[in-house]
Amino acid sequence: MGIASDSKTATTLSQALAQRVLEFSADAVPQAVLDEAARRVLDTLACAYGALNEVAALATLRAVASTGGLPECTVIGQTWRTSVGNAALANGTLVRCLDLNDLGIGLREAGHPSDNIPVALAMGERLNATGREVLTAIVLGYEIYGRMPSPLRAWAATTNSAVVAAAMCGYLMKLPSERLVSAIGLSVGQCSTLAVTREGVAGKSTANAMTTYTAIMQTLMAAEGVTGPPRALEEYSRFVYGGTDLSALAQALDGPEFLIMSAGMKAHPAIGTAQTAIEAALSARTGLTDPMTEIEHIDVRMADVPFVRHQVDHAGELPRTREAADHSFPFLVAVTVLDGKLTLRQFENERWVAPDVLALIARMSVVVDASLNQHAGIGSFPCRVIITTRDGRKLSAEVPYHPGHVKNRMGWEGVQAKFHRWTEEHLPAAQRNAIVDATVGLSRTSSIRELMALVGAN
After folding, report:
1. Residues 117 and 95 sit within 8 Å (Cβ to Cβ)
2. Residue 131 has pLDDT above 80, yes or no
3. What is the pLDDT of residues 251-301, one digit of tens each?
4. Which of 50, 121, 75, 13 lies closest to 456 in space, CA to CA?
């Protein structure tokens, strides 16, 4: 496992990464990249507000509130404040609950790098960092996350956020090199997460947030002098990644291409691979007036790529929980065809076991189709939906790139529309507009606290 040749003083991966983090400069980040990070902040806030009434979110908020904590950081949508670690735990859970936050495809791993934006917001608020400093920390987080490989099957991808969160916090805290190395080592040693903790249970929503909570606490302890193992990443590589080379973490993190620019966003509260299927279902059903009566069969065809093929192989397993339902191709297509939309209402009252949904799933096939692979690529999961009606009509739609994909970007207008759509139930228009304005100008604000004051409930 090699260390970058120009990292002459580095003897371990943690030391090399710490050096790269300390070299990372806001001056090296173009304004367009900072603006993209600001869009991610607004998108992340939309996801958090949208989840305020979710069972896992409410339970986490109650648990965090019950512990108290130094009132130094904002909890989204709440009147109370808490400690930096608690705030990251609460806000991180809110962001993840709906499976509505971004889909990042890095050099090796697909996941949700915006899971770690609450870390930058909380630590930035604690330190009274500038908006530019917080945005730079977010860009840094995307760079590190995108260089992490997939762990072995027994481990959850949220394990990677141990490294990301420690590095983001160390950057904002301006830790000296040896203490940042300890922070990384302590976090890596404490934050490995078993994959089973995320399989169809509400704990999925808390997994990354709990990882970052622990990483924040380890970083705070390292800052006070607790030492950590400098060879932790080497051991991490052996036991969590099966020996996969992690030397990409020792390479320069400041572009010229920034990974945050290649991460997609989501329009729908569902797994990233199903975003195109939902869009295709919405388009194909436009010729129907009574889907249950009219439909003979639904043929769902997905690109034949490994990430999708595994899910298609399990498409026959009916979901039994809310967390499994938003990962189920058959359920998502069926309920979208029936209702003509996919919002939180489509998950109410255990809709995945409703007779109409089950009846439509029984008329559905989900397969992979290599002919769609011409559009498959980074973060793209092309889908074709063909609805055959009982009177012989064929209603079909093909979607190569979902709204939010890098080849079908939302832009500021789209992200703002998403923010208003998911927050109007919780915030008056004036507060929503103020949050949008504060986010648009985030790279120029002297303190992240200006935005966070708007995010807390009055």
Report:
1. yes
2. yes
3. 988 878 899 998 999 999 999 899 999 999 999 999 899 999 999 999 999
4. 75
| Tokens 């915006």 -> residue | 114
Single out the residue of 141, 67, 77 nearest to residue 104, CA to CA.
Answer: 141
Pick the CATH number of 272-399 from 3.30.1130.10, 1.10.287.40, 3.30.1330.120, 3.30.450.40: 3.30.1330.120
**Where along the chain do its domains lie?**
13-262, 272-399
DSSP state letters, 36-78? HHHHHHHHHHHHHHHTTTSHHHHHHHHHHHHT---S-EE-TT-
Give residues with Cβ within 8 angstroms of 390, minimum separation 6: 293, 294, 295, 296
Q: Where are the alpha helices (DSSP H) in 113-231?
A: 117-127, 131-147, 161-173, 177-190, 203-223
> 76, 94 in Cβ contact below 8 A?
yes
Q: Count H helices and E strands in the chain, helices first.
A: 19, 8
Whether the Cβ atoms of residue 171 and residue 192 lie closer than 8 Å to each other: no
Q: Are 100 and 94 in contact (CB under 8 A)?
A: no
**What contacts 209, CB < 8 A, 6 or more positions away?**
60, 88, 89, 90, 91, 92, 93, 95, 96, 115, 118
Give the three-state DSSP class for 82: strand
| Residues 354, 356: Cα–Cα separation, whole Å | 6
Q: Are 196 and 37 in contact (CB under 8 A)?
A: no
pLDDT digits (tens, 9 = 90+) for 215-261: 999 999 999 999 999 999 999 899 988 888 899 999 988 878 899 99
3-state secondary structure of 299: strand
Checking if the pLDDT of 450 tops 80, the result is: yes
Task: Burial-class residue 68 by CB neighbours within 10 Å (0-12, 13-18, 19+).
Answer: exposed
Per-residue pLDDT tens over the stretch 110-126: 689 999 999 999 999 99
Q: Of the ranges 58-62, 100-104, 289-293, 446-450, which one carries the lowest mean pLDDT score?
A: 100-104
CATH code, residues 13-262: 1.10.4100.10
Q: Are 308 and 273 in contact (CB under 8 A)?
A: yes
